[in-house]
Amino acid sequence: MELGPPGGSGPAEPGPRLRGLRGADAAASASSLSRFGAEAGCRASAVAAVLPAGGSGERMGVPTPKQFCPILERPLISYTLQALERVSWIKDIIVAVTRENMETMKGIIQRYQHKRISLVEAGVTRHRSIFNGLKALAEDQPNCRLSKPEVVIIHDAVRPFVEEDVLLKVVTAAQEHGCSDYDLEFGTECLHLALKYSHIKAKLVEGSPDLWKVTYKRDLYAAESIIKERISQKVCVVMDTKEDEEHVGHCLEEMLKTELNHVKVTSGQDLQQIILEQCYNFVCVNVMTSDFEETQRLLNMVEESNLSILYPVVVISVHFLDYESVPLGQKMEKVMQIREFAKEAKKRNILLSGLLIYFPQVGKNIDKIVCSVDYSFFFFWWEPDFF
Amino acid sequence: MELGPPGGSGPAEPGPRLRGLRGADAAASASSLSRFGAEAGCRASAVAAVLPAGGSGERMGVPTPKQFCPILERPLISYTLQALERVSWIKDIIVAVTRENMETMKGIIQRYQHKRISLVEAGVTRHRSIFNGLKALAEDQPNCRLSKPEVVIIHDAVRPFVEEDVLLKVVTAAQEHGCSDYDLEFGTECLHLALKYSHIKAKLVEGSPDLWKVTYKRDLYAAESIIKERISQKVCVVMDTKEDEEHVGHCLEEMLKTELNHVKVTSGQDLQQIILEQCYNFVCVNVMTSDFEETQRLLNMVEESNLSILYPVVVISVHFLDYESVPLGQKMEKVMQIREFAKEAKKRNILLSGLLIYFPQVGKNIDKIVCSVDYSFFFFWWEPDFF
Known about the structure:
2 copies of one chain form a homodimer.
Chain A: H1 30-43, E1 47-52, E2 70-71, E3 74-75, H2 76-85, E4 90-97, H3 102-111, E5 117-121, H4 126-138, E6 151-154, H5 164-177, H6 181-186, H7 189-198, H8 217-231, E7 234-239, H9 242-257, E8 262-266, H10 271-276, E9 281-286, H11 293-305, E10 313-322, H12 328-347, E11 350-359, H13 366-371, E12 378-382
Parallel strand pairs in A: 1-4, 1-6, 4-5, 7-8, 7-9, 9-10, 10-11
Antiparallel strand pairs in A: 2-3, 11-12
Helix pairs in contact in A: 1-5, 4-7
């Protein structure tokens, strides 16, 4: 395949390097891999990744190019960037986008606080886009902050579920074998291009089924469900009292454990640590107080942590109301108040819902209600979308 | 490819032929196709379909064979059968299942009221399963109710989204070309098998992207989302009064139309017809009465129609409560009552939820509340899963 002169020039201005809590996927087994990763990083003087992202996505049946299609309101390419940038030994990530989408892409990098990203202009074909990325890495430009890599990973912008082990396999194979005859015979044309123009070693390694490419609209559905499943497996129950934790908290924990992999109950002292470990789901049980103190404290901590930048954080505020002891009118005022919280929280990707448990029988203990099979009380449920 | 003697024998007892409302997919463009279909049916003396369904689904990563994996609680193969049996000119559908799954399969046919189905035992390979299906069609058995077909469609049990137009293309191609050299060269081994053993014409026709096969777990997610999208595009708002229909009904209609393709508002007189046209989503607005008369009437009609056999029917019962005029205790009794309805309805695949709109300001009109942007009232939401 003969190529004309490249469509794009050098790298555009590097992406912003904002600090923030980064959202590694729950599925990543970071501990064992990072050791290997560090070794690979040692052996390779530098590893870079090039993402061709100049496609128009005509097979999607939607006007937005597929790399910009939203999954849980975040563009697909942001998930792919997240998967690559959590691999510490990838020093630079070059994204090739069309001129029209350059500003969109810069906005995505800024909004989701992606790091180590440089943008180059996409070519008219996928190969030219890759070429432009490789060229930016190979060029000796004054003031160029890019390290010259020994290994370049070429990764589709629309394969969001790439794992560190596969990337490591790619890098190791590249270091050990270079580019074999097999690849030249059976590999894709990308390899020819890399060999012919960039003088950078390259090799194709077979991926896992997880490496699938988002091509059709149904793949967006699947991607959304996979992401939802990942972030919904961990839940933290925050109790507003240590005493009740033993009763109500234990009941809730047992119930939730039948559905979810990770259930943590706390009376709040280790909340900061739980947020740092990227738990995206909270049930905040207000037993002692009739207002939203505990919920408000949790909302503040979540907001400060930047946890909700990458994924929506779900907070369910649970309130127990004794029919006899608290006048409904008074409780209603409180409900009005949480509506305001919910409105504000939603702007920051925190989905605050409420559960009011209104039990009409005097003398019924709260822990009995939570653990009861014969539910003889009322539930009221409100969701942020209602407001 | 040389085959030994077939693993299975003749057809097992035919599937039950129960009468009931059948759920054609919303996406099927029945009108124009059925004319073509009828023509094809005329030209072909008989068309049959064989579904090999003996797979173990090891790539799914789940213990259940993929054809039996649930989507919205119904097994995948039931969707495929539904897609085939809504094509009137397919006279017989032969499903090849393993001996262990024979009872499961019979249960599925009975529960979801599938028609024109015969079961044969699957062989140890996909080819033997197809062979057994073809053999059952070709054999001259006394008391055999199967028509000898001119054309046989061989269809994977795990491709649920097959449309009538593709099936028609298959049949037309088979009638016009028989089995060409191209197919023999490039087609799958199924063709060789069909040619060699069954003396029945067969041809491979290229399918559309919709014809994709459920292979991995992510495909189940995608299938579920596609089905949900299809059945959620149609909603019917049932008002309990004709007078309010103009105000509240119109507001609701306008709001819902921004999200959904088909919105119908009725005061109930044409409800039977709407159910017959397979609307799976209802909002039942109780303005005039403070009890559940309208909702109960709707639930009864849905239950009698068998609408919820194939897909869950969603009913949202909306109730307006004036803070001043109705004592809360009294309203609470009603809430208790709908919990019982919801429990019972869920057993019949009807998901009854409730929305209590509790407005504290005297003199506020209901239509103003529905259309209001500044919501100054309370919502209470209850879901069947809570009970």
